[in-house]
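User: Some background: our group keeps a shared notebook of sequences we're curious about, and every so often someone picks one and asks for a predicted structure to add to the entry. Today it's my turn. The entry only has the sequence so far, pasted here. Could you supply the structure so I can complete it?
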Amino acid sequence: MLHKITRLTVRDVRFPTSSEQHGSDAMHSDPDYSAAYVVVDTDCGRKGFGLTFTLGKGTDIVVCAVEALAALVVGKCLQEIVSDFRGFYRLLTSDGQMRWLGPEKGVIHLATAAVLNAVWDLWARVDGKPLWKLLVDMDPKQIVSCIDFRYITDVLTEKEALDILVNAQVGKQQREDQMLKEGYPAYTTSCAWLGYSDQQLKQLCTDALKNGWTKFKVKVGADLEDDIRRCRLIRQMIGPNNTLMIDANQRWDVGEAISWVSSLSEVKPLWIEEPTSPDDILGHATISKALAPLGIGVASGEQCHNRVMFKQFLQASALQFVQIDSCRLGSVNENLAVMLMAHKFQVPVCPHAGGVGLCELVQHLILFDYICLSASLSNRMCEYVDHLHEHFTSPVVIQDAHYMPPKDPGYSCEMLESSVWRHQFPEGDVWKLHTNK
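Assistant: Of course. Here's the predicted structure to add to the notebook entry:
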């Protein structure tokens, strides 16, 4: 079977999470977790499912961008794509006219991620494996062949990447067995959204501790005195030995970030996430240098456009924690490049997740990172947000605050059709009740 792609459809799916302040932070006070949801159909009846994450308004713009890319995909055979996946990646990102809209950044790159996520899902389904297992079982040369090394060879060459992967073959089976038994460590962001009341925060922390959570992230950045109060409260709730991280979602200027985080150092955060503009590489480097004596690292990446920016963040020692995103970057292909560069610089990868489907997607990538690259769990964890998993056919499985490896074939981002219809914007039943949106 050639598995020729005969059709690509995309829908605007939105969830009214802003009504209960889920996802609220210092810069995004009313997010409606949403997705541009892609389905590719093939001539033999197989389907692939993909998405990219948004916050509500503007999802329709991403949908338009996906539709603009569809002509580059429809008519291609799966075997043709995966035999030269690097070439297919470049086909989508280097169209002589559409690349002007990026290149490899913004709405057009979000759309590229959604399309490529669906193709990777299709490949894993055809192969009968969950995506992480498809990657783990690949020959190192095949993995390297999926990566576009253009613009990053000054830091990572194809040969270096191959050597890293070959060297990591030692102990690979033991690490895979370990993950199947224990899972990958996670941290929770669900307890301390900025819009939550103290009572809600206390209850959620209490429940999380009972369920085995030991790593917690807190949203900060709107008001310093309130941040100090809330962080003290959470530190008191979780105790001195559990891990606390703080996240400003790009709220501050560089000097303000250094001053603000210094004032929060008493609660001993492991990192400050997105302290300033996600594009300010040298600003992050300045903050990293200033906070190092306090033992506080800098984390970022969920809005880092592409592998080139990650390259520069690493070159500038601007990040102590790399946060890959399964939908901001150009799908698995580009995330492979970033994970390899992070390994070379010995910076731990701690993926961004949450939203709609991000947990489902990124769990596959971090399993690959541990089994085939890092071979380390030191200062490594994957974000988890307990929202909207019930809308997926293969939702994440969390046991004792660990991601358990998915077993179903694919990339885990197929949504229940009933959920898609109810939440499709603006005609879905849910949105008929939210006419103000």
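Suggested note for the entry: The first helix runs from residue 59 to 69. The radius of gyration is 21 Å.
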